[in-house]
Each structure stands twice: as C-alpha cells, then as structure tokens.
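ugh ok so i messed up the first submission bc i forgot one of the chains. this is the corrected input, ALL of the components this time, i swear. 542 residues overall. if the numbers dont match what u have on ur side tell me asap before i send this to the collaborators (the ones from the other lab, u know who)
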Amino acid sequence: MRPSPEDKRHAAAAQLLLNRVALGLVAEARRRGGFGEDEGALRARAVELAEKLGANDTGADPRRPPVGLKLRRGGRIDLKVPFGDGGRACAGLRADGFVLSGGIERSIPSRTWRPEDMTEAEREEKQRRDLAYEASRGKPKFRGERYLRTVAASAQPGAVERILAAELYGDGLLVEFTYDVEEMTDEQMMAEAESPYERRPPMSVTDDLGTEYYEGGSATYGGGPGVSHSHFTFAPAVPAEATVLRITTDSGTVELDLRT
Amino acid sequence: MAAKKYKARIRFGDSLLIATAGLLGALRDADAFPQDRSGIEALVASAPKGPDGEELWATYEEPDAPITYLGGTGTWVAPAGDGRLRLRMQPLGADVLTSQIWILGPDGSLSDPETIEGYGVPDDELPESARAELEEIERRRQRALARMPEMERRDEEWRHRFRVEHLLGVVAGPADEDQSGPILSHVVLYDTGLIVDYLLPRSVEDGVDPEEPWEFDVPVLPIKLDDGLGTEFTDCWGGSIDRNGSGPLRCRREFTPAVAHAATRLLIEIDSASVEIALGSV
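and heres the new structure output, hopefully the right one now
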C-alpha cells in the first residue's frame, strides 16, 4: 500500500526530529568522549531532547515516548522515532557522528483472514502449510550441519520446475531447483502483496527406504522477474543405505541416483 | 592464487543525518565550525570514516556563490557565520532542480529547511552560468536517454540469461573435497553461461553482531574457471549468499559465456581450492 500524503508528512517530521535528537546526543557525546554506558540515562536524555524540540507533527500516539533508544555494543546507539499509525524513522550511529544505518519502517496493518475471505489457491496453500507444520511439529529443523556431498539431477526437458541438485547433510537435505518467473502487472503485484499466503511451489521427497521427510524450515523461492533460483530443505538426513531419492513437484517426479 | 577478499556491506541512512552528524563529529572538541574554505575542506576530510573506510561526501561552496547542481556530490557546505555551517542539499528523488538549505550549529542545533526552486531567480533573470549549466544538464539527460535502449537490452539479457530454456545440465562437485576451505557443491551449465554453487565454512564469518546478524562481512572469493579451450569467463556479479542454519554459508556466483561445447572438463579455482569436474555426461 502506498503511503498517503499525510503519512509522508508524518514520516518527514519524524525523520527531522530523529536527526535533531541524534545531533543533540552526538554534540553531548563529543564533549564527554562517548555516549557512556548508562542506557536508561541516555534514553531519558533523548526523550527530553525530543520533547523540547517538539514531537507534535509526527502523528504518533502521544501516550508513547517520542523516541526510543538502545545502546549497542561498541558504544553506538539505535534511535527510533514513531510516526503515524505504526511507522518509525530509524538510525544507528556512533558517538563520533558516523551513521551506520537508517531509514523509514512502516508496519503492515494486521488483518485477520477467515477461510471465506481467501481465494481457492490461498485456501490450498494454507492447508498445505498446516499439513507441513503438523508433519514437522516437535522434530528437529534442518540446520545444514555436516555437509556430506551433492547429487546432481539428470536433465528434465520440458519441465516447468527443474530440479538441479540435492545437497546432503548430516541432518537433512537441501533441494536446489529453478523455474522461470514472468514479469507481474501492477495488479498482480498488489494482489500478491495483499495475499496472506504467497504460493509456494509444492514439493515432496521420498526414498526407496520409505523415510518420512518433512519440511526443514528454511526455504527460498519466488523472486524474479526472469528466473527464480530456489531451494527447499527437508529433514531428517537421507539414510546412507538409501539408493534413490525421489523429488516430486507439479512438473513430475525426478529420481536422483544416490549410488553415484 | 592470492586470496584477495572483498567485503560486502550495504548501508542505508538519511543523507541529511549522514552529513550533519558527520560534520558535527568532525568538529571534535572545537567550539565553532571553521568559516573559511580550507578549514571547511579540512573538516570534511577529517569526518569520521565508516568500518569499511566510507568517507563523508560534501563539497565546499562560497556562501554567496550562484547555485550549482553539477560538480558536487549532492551536499554543498558553506560558512553561515557565528561558527555555524550552511548545508545545501538536493533532495533525493526530486524530478526538478531543488535545493534545501539547513543551518547547522556547533551545539548540534539544526534549523528548519529553506527550499529554493531551481536557481532561486525567475527564468528570465538566470545568470549566464546557470543557463550554461541547464544546457549541460539537458545534454547529459539526452545522453542518458540515448543509452536507455542498450541498458534495457542488457537488463533483458541479464534477466533471461539463466531461464530454464537455456539450462543444459548440472555437474556435482567431488564427494571427497577438503572441507576446511571453499567446497564446490555443483555447477549449473547453461548455453548462455554457468552458475557456480559453493559452500564456505562458517568460520569465515568474522565480527557478526548477534543483535544484528544481517550485517556482516562476507568474503567474496576470487573464482577462476578454465575449460581447457581458452574460454574467457566473466563474473556477472550476480548471485547470492545464504547464511541460514548453522552449517556452511551457501554461495552462488554467475559467469558468462557458456563453457565451450567441445570442452570435456572444467577446472574451478575458488580462492585457494582447486577442483576439476568432468563434463562428459552433460
């Protein structure tokens, strides 16, 4: 959702207030030789400066502190000035004035999705995720510990999703795959941004020993436009005695010969 | 091969805060900002540098000099009297020439901005220097427009280079690689280039702040490819680094052109690790 003119005005006011508070703290730090170690005192001083400078134009909840501060390792601080309905101007800086980070953060308003609000594809994706969650609940996640080897997949002419390789680890496996991603129209991008469930390409893994693989946690998919370089992870580890790994997607099943 | 390593770090920040906090920090224990050119230029040069040597970019201008939008870095600094500085900045994203003026005091005070459209005078009163600059800006715009078709063609080529229609096959790295350094996982061969997927031991991550684990230095290792037929490979600077989990970092790098059709093997040197793979089955 694009920010409204009012939101932009609030963000600019928050950014300016943050800059002024930051400059005030840096000006004091250069006299004292640093921000010090008392986070509470520094936070109180930041609030005092913000109130003195006036935080009226940010549109933030007046019951909340006009500025948040955290003292970080290495004598640097993170500052946040709230604005509007959940936005924040942020900056991280050192006592000598070097700015390490900064920007504007905006929260996405929370919304409760009921099944009847979803499209058919979203309901299917929710169901798939619920099942995957149930299958992996209470079991160790894939962490990529102890790399063993990689098994390359053979060619899959005509397939939309192409399995490239499986990396085998001591606690699971990672399947690399690729597919084309077409450029989205503005309407498609908007619909995807507002959808509760981005469609994840379905994939399941089996072997000749009947091992029950579950989703391992980390995954990368989507992206583009052009092409997606993706991977899914699964656990547990492929047993050493397994000879075939079968990876099934919407494009069919690919067999990886584990004896090679 | 010498292990030349590069650091990859992306910083974001408000340009006004970067300039003002940098100048204030450079003031150290002085009570006032310098008011002459050499003093201000020395102040800018002595501004605190970032962890990777990042410098403050700002250009001196005379306080009564005609406004210019060329020959600087987007931030111009002038004396403002009473030990203060005047900063003139071109707002990011503005599609017309605009300057915002700020006064920075040695106590950290920052004025409200004053906005100047264009050169601050009606078009029919523009000085000759401003007219010449506008002509130069238009020439640059026209040159940029002339480059657009080629840039769009390259962008299209980049986005389509590794689509599945170009995929030839995958070759896995050997199973018995030394895991103390970079490990070749696999190479993906296309008729337009190739992608090298390799793993790096987690120990290469230095200085990761647990509070900000996304900000870290990653060595981008030099990769040398030799298909035995003299193909000269170019790093496309495309790829990714995946640091999820607790195992090795997973790295992907993209190269052009394709491995020669007649090549039977490919030698891959990743930093000091060297691996040869057979291409016969692809």
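quick check: The first strand of chain B starts at residue 59 and ends at 60. that seems consistent at least. Chain B touches chain A through 65 residues (CB under 8 Å).
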